[in-house]
From TrEMBL, chain B:
It is found in: Cell membrane. This is ABC transporter permease. InterPro entries: ABC_transp_permease. Keywords: Cell membrane, Membrane, Transmembrane, Transmembrane helix. It is a multi-pass membrane protein. Its main location: membrane. PANTHER family: GUANOSINE ABC TRANSPORTER PERMEASE PROTEIN NUPQ, SUGAR ABC TRANSPORTER INTEGRAL MEMBRANE PROTEIN-RELATED. GO terms for molecular function: transmembrane transporter activity. The keyword RNA-binding does not apply. It holds the Pfam family BPD_transp_2. It comes from the Bacteria.
Length: 395, 309
């Protein structure tokens, strides 16, 4: 019965978007020059159980598909056309210069949220049945579901973010109709770790992870390597705790309170919605007179608590989704594996909006490290085993 | 060392209230013979309504609104399970599903998916002089629900075991026919208990969005309602037992966090996942040891029909 409900809702959603599509788009730019396709291509997106509004990973994919690719904003349960200003404001600094190249495409987004892991396969299938030309699975949790759907629907095309296609034994495999995008989270985490090492006054920093999986470990390992590079003492005292969930902000808050009580003054989280609790704990500690910062993840989380967020480790999955949609419209979509790091602008560090003593100098050091990662002189470790042997020369 | 104890105690006291209230609500409903699977949904509704109400009114009043919202959802449960004698588990699960999807729908259509705007949090009470005492200082600096959560279980236990009303509530869960022969209204008592459990669950939810966080976050309460049921069973359907179980869960979690952050070497020996599962593992062990001596109310889950014998 629930499934029927979802179906009805989706049908309704499509009907709404179609109606809008027929009217000439006011804010969005017309699709690529030359002959224009009248009909918008449906592009589906299944987000993981983290849901819409996580200020983080899912919101990034939604931004790429809805705001950038379709030029629309999701408001009150339906799509409205986004103004060019809104699009411009959402762009990361390294893209805002060539905002013109980020044209709205003639696509029609269909987004399905997953309430439980069992929803992934039916949701993907639903989108394929709805005629989605490209279906995006956002998150490693969808890896198995995307494999199943891609094998069952060899004619449909898929984009899988954050994971390779894995066979039943968990080994990486290739499918002719799936593009996968992986990120070198360790490189972005390295930068925020380096900054944390420079900013901490107590020489104690913390890491709050969600579920302890290789993906989240990459954040931790990169962060540890960054702290080690700029502050050996803080690296010794680094505290790392996993909450065991991605949707329980109370757990995130409890962990953060503990770390703050033990003297940590910079906390980096890679814990989805649990991270909202981490930021809340930092906010409350600041209100109580402690000088503590949180570092956000995946999206620029500064708006959640402007004073409390030092910076955010950015993962531009929005761009990867946009690129795939653009390739689809251009007819150049191809399967394969992409791995995006600092060099490819796949990850990065958000603008530092708070002020602290020695800010300019610290940012300079971090920038120098960034250049050295891009040039390849620093190889950031990705797995805990490589961390012990990692030795970066002082900045 | 004292520092560690202090932060353990503080963290437990900060995190436990929502769970304690929900567990007490579950005890109230089930002692009167109505299964309380819907706690999760009632908490969610309470959390949502409290956060929305707090946008326009003082936060303490908003908490009351959250409680009333929880009771309203409990009213639906009561209507289905008492008036229409439907299956209480099915009714509870249906309410959970409605609250889960309805909460998300309302949130997105009213405020967008990013949660409600921030609200004024409940004020934290700093007890003069206590804050600087080692360990005991952790009792200071919490908001009102924490202190209520420490007192209410004992008051509730007193009510249940030492007053005529308590006797009737227990009787209506064990042998409703006996209550009816005394000329008392079985549906009336059950209605009271179900609505009361809704108030408590709503309070638990409201605590999450007004004391733990300063807005409604769309995953709230993230399974806490089901943990409350576990605490109720673990506490053998008594208020103080449920309170101790809920406090134990919160303490177990705080202990795990504290161990991992203070003794990182431990994590290399025992994976964090094992530590995460530890409180629940202990629950299973206790339940196993309890064995046959179940303390569930005898008429739990059985709709009352006057004509039945």
């Amino acid at each position: 019965m629930l499934r029927l409900h979802v179906l009805a809702l989706t049908a309704l959603l499509c009907a709404c978007s179609k109606q809008k599509e027929e009217a000439p788009p006011s804010g969005a730019q017309p699709p690529a020059a030359g002959k224009t396709e009248k009909k918008a291509l449906p592009v589906g997106l299944v987000i993981d159980v983290g849901g819409r509004g996580d200020h983080s990973f899912n919101d990034a994919a939604l931004r790429g598909l809805e705001l950038w690719a379709a030029g629309k904003r999701y408001e009150g349960g339906k799509y409205v056309d986004a103004t060019p200003d809104e699009v411009r404001q959402s762009l990361p600094p390294h893209l805002s210069s060539d905002a013109a190249s980020l044209k709205a495409l003639a696509i029609q987004p269909i987004v399905l949220q997953s309430k439980a892991q069992e929803d992934y396969v039916p949701n993907l299938q639903l989108l394929v049945d709805q005629g989605a030309r490209l279906t995006v699975g956002n998150g490693y949790m969808l890896a198995n579901a995307v494999r199943t759907s891609a094998q069952e629907n060899p004619k449909a095309q898929f984009l899988l973010i954050d994971s390779q296609v894995l066979d039943a034994q968990g080994k990486a495999m290739k499918l002719p109709n799936v593009r996968t995008v992986l990120f070198k989270e360790q490189e972005g985490s390295f930068l925020v770790g380096a900054l944390a090492g420079l900013v901490t006054k107590t020489n104690k920093v913390g890491f709050v992870g969600g579920i302890e999986v290789p993906l989240i470990q990459r954040f931790e390992v990169g962060y540890r390597a960054g702290v080690k590079t700029t502050n050996a003492q803080a690296s010794q005292a680094l505290m790392s705790v996993y909450t065991g969930s991605f949707n329980n902000m109370a757990a995130g808050k409890q962990v953060a309170q503990d770390l703050i009580a033990k003297g940590a003054d910079v906390l980096f989280h890679a814990a989805g919605a649990d991270g909202i609790g981490v930021i809340q704990a930092v906010k409350e500690a600041r209100a109580a007179g402690k000088s503590v910062y949180a570092i956000g993840v995946d999206s620029d989380q500064s708006h959640v608590a402007p004073d409390a967020i030092l910076t955010s480790m950015m993962k531009y999955s929005d761009l990867a989704v946009y690129q795939a949609a653009k390739d689809l419209v251009d007819g150049t979509f191809s399967a394969g594996e992409q791995v995006l790091g600092l060099k490819e602008n796949g990850v990065g560090m958000a603008e530092v909006r708070v002020d602290f003593p020695g800010k300019a100098e610290a940012l300079q050091k971090v920038e120098a490290l960034r250049q050295r990662i891009i040039s390849g002189t620093i190889q950031v470790p990705a797995v805990p085993a490589d961390l012990a042997t990692f030795q970066a020369a002082a900045p | 060392m004292l520092d560690v104890l202090h932060s353990l105690l503080f963290s437990t006291l900060d995190a436990a209230p929502a769970l304690i209230f929900a567990a007490l609500g579950a005890v109230l409903s089930e002692r009167a013979g109505v299964i309380a699977v819907g706690m999760e949904g009632m908490m969610r509704v309470g959390a949502f309504c409290a956060a929305v109400a707090a946008l326009t009114m003082p936060t303490p009043l908003a908490v009351v609104m959250g409680m009333l919202a929880g009771a309203a959802l409990a009213g639906v449960h009561g209507f289905l399970s008492i008036r229409w004698r439907s299956d209480q588990v099915v009714s509870g699960i249906a309410l959970n599903l409605v609250a889960l999807a309805g909460g998300t729908f309302l949130l997105e259509s009213l405020y967008g998916p990013n949660g409600t705007p921030p609200i004024q949090q409940l004020t934290r009470w700093h007890i003069p002089g206590l804050g600087s005492v080692p360990v005991l200082g952790a009792l200071s600096g919490h908001s009102a629900p924490t202190y209520l959560a420490l007192l209410l279980p004992f008051a509730f236990q007193g009510l249940l075991t030492r007053t005529p009303l308590g006797l009737r509530l227990r009787a209506v869960g064990d042998k409703p026919q006996a209550v009816a022969t005394l000329g008392l209204s079985v549906p009336g008592l059950r209605w009271g208990a179900v609505l009361g459990s809704g108030l408590l669950a709503g309070l638990g939810g409201a605590v999450l969005s007004t004391a733990v966080l300063d807005r409604f976050e769309q995953h709230t309460p993230a399974g806490l309602g089901f943990m409350a049921l576990a605490a109720m069973v673990f506490g053998r359907w008594t208020p103080v037992g449920a309170f101790l179980a809920a406090a134990f869960f919160a303490f177990g979690n705080a202990l795990r966090i504290g161990l991992v952050s203070s003794a990182p070497g431990l994590v290399e020996l025992i994976p964090q996942g094992v530590l995460l599962a530890l409180p629940y593992l202990l629950t299973l062990v206790v339940l196993t040891l309890q064995g046959q001596r179940s303390s569930a109310p005898a008429a739990l889950g059985t709709p009352y029909e006057q004509e039945s014998r």
